[in-house]
């Protein structure tokens, strides 16, 4: 019996051990160290670290308007980004599960932006907003293309939202397509025979049965939106005057530009707790609405 237990333990150690060590070294240890540094005034370079207790958190919550502004910007961006990305992703999936020519090609085309790195994508869209839209505006006189897309707070916000939705909705489309194709056809056919319209079938059958996919997609988009950094850096760099600065960019600037690593890690810890609470509540809420076919 002991031999069997020892053999099973060795198998687990061989298969799981290396992965666990990498996870420990790359995720757990930096996270614990970050928690420790959040209670210090370390600048990221000095060999000595001074313990300051809760001073960093007090400063963030009482005397850091840039953090509050970036927190509000990120919250607005997350609400708008999550809604639009999921709606667009679902609509693409719903359309591309209908019988039509070239739907596989269209699926590939809509998924492709997700493969492109965020920084590269941001610089491409920066050129489009600054040069491409301006040229179209000069030729057509349409005011939409003449807006200062990355030059003001309002248009900068919507510029980032447009690129985020364009990049992310294709990934959600794939998840929704897989879920919609798994909805029992006989259930939808029975509803149509009973006289249900396509809208009624969508609202009363398809949406309830794909709630597991909705749970996953909401979780992913909430996480992506809150952690959005590369698009923010490449499109607006937080400007003008830090009005479009996300929390991730604010933390980066605090730690690696201002050389206040302790304060930056304190912000990241607050950020982590907030995102964890939001995602747990979202998963609990959407899980409660899942049904079985």
Q: Would you count the extended β strands for me?
A: 0
Which residues sit in consecutive blocks of at least 5 with pLDDT less than 50? none
Computed Rg: 24 Å
What percentage of residues falls in helices of 4 or more residues? over 70%
The CATH topology corresponds to: MetI-like fold
Largest sheet entry: none
- Count structural domains: 1
The overall pLDDT average reads 90
Report the CATH superfamily: MetI-like
Overview of the structural elements:
By secondary structure, the protein is mostly helical. The protein has a single domain, classed as MetI-like (MetI-like fold), CATH 1.10.3720. The chain contains 13 helices and no strands. It has helices spanning 2-37, 55-62, 65-96, 103-111, 118-140, 143-146, 153-181, 185-193, 198-209, 211-226, 230-235, 247-257, 261-287. α10 (211-226) packs antiparallel against α13. The two termini are 43 Å apart.
List the keywords.
globular; 13 helices; MetI-like fold; mainly alpha; 293 residues
Please specify the SSE layout and strand pairing.
Elements: H1 2-37, H2 55-62, H3 65-96, H4 103-111, H5 118-140, H6 143-146, H7 153-181, H8 185-193, H9 198-209, H10 211-226, H11 230-235, H12 247-257, H13 261-287
Helix pairs in contact: 3-7, 3-10, 4-7, 7-10, 8-9, 10-13, 12-13
């Amino acid at each position: 019996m002991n031999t069997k237990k020892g053999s099973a333990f060795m198998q687990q150690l061989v298969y799981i051990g290396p992965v666990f060590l990498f996870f420990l070294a790359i995720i757990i240890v930096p996270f614990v160290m970050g928690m420790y540094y959040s209670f210090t005034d370390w600048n990221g370079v000095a060999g000595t670290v001074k313990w300051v207790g809760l001073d960093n958190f007090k400063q963030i919550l009482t005397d850091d308007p840039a953090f509050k502004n970036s927190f509000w910007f990120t919250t607005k961006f997350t609400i708008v980004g999550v809604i639009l990305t999921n709606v667009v992703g679902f609509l693409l999936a719903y359309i591309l599960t209908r019988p039509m020519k070239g739907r596989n090609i269209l699926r590939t085309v809509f998924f492709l932006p997700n493969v492109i790195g965020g920084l590269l994508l941001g610089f491409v869209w920066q050129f489009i907003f600054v040069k491409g839209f301006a040229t179209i505006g000069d030729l057509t006189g349409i005011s939409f293309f003449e807006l200062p897309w990355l030059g003001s707070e309002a248009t900068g916000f919507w510029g980032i939202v447009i690129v985020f939705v364009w990049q992310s909705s294709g990934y959600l489309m794939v998840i929704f397509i897989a879920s919609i194709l798994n909805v029992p056809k006989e259930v939808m056919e029975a509803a149509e025979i009973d006289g249900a319209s396509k809208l009624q079938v969508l609202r009363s059958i398809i949406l309830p049965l794909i709630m597991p996919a909705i749970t996953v997609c909401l979780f992913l988009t909430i996480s992506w939106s809150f952690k959005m950094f590369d698009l923010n850096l490449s499109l607006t760099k937080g400007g003008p005057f830090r009005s479009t600065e996300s929390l991730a960019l604010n933390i980066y600037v605090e730690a690696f530009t201002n050389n206040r690593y302790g304060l930056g890690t304190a912000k990241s810890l607050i950020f982590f707790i907030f995102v964890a609470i939001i995602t747990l509540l979202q998963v609990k809420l959407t899980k409660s609405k899942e049904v079985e076919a």
